[in-house]
Known about the structure:
With 81 residues, the protein is an alpha+beta fold. It has helices spanning 23-28, 54-59, 73-80; strands at 2-10, 34-41, 47-50, 66-69.
Amino acid sequence: MQKIYLDFETYYDTQVTLSKMSTVQYINNEQFKVWGVGIKVEDGETEWYNECDTPAILEQIDWDNVALVCHNTLFDAYILT
């Protein structure tokens, strides 16, 4: 199984923030936006994908054979859903 390390960077402001909202409320907020994602595969270099490239790169991953590692897995995995 391949390890993938992933971290999304997203829109936030003083009102639209995880410190004031649940993960579900934040991600489903109309202002929510993914700015990009950092992805590292195994021991490789971390690569940054901007908002335009993110959907295509995520579609290339064989998720059935991946162990996902995140700093905040609840947040990042929910975005993936």
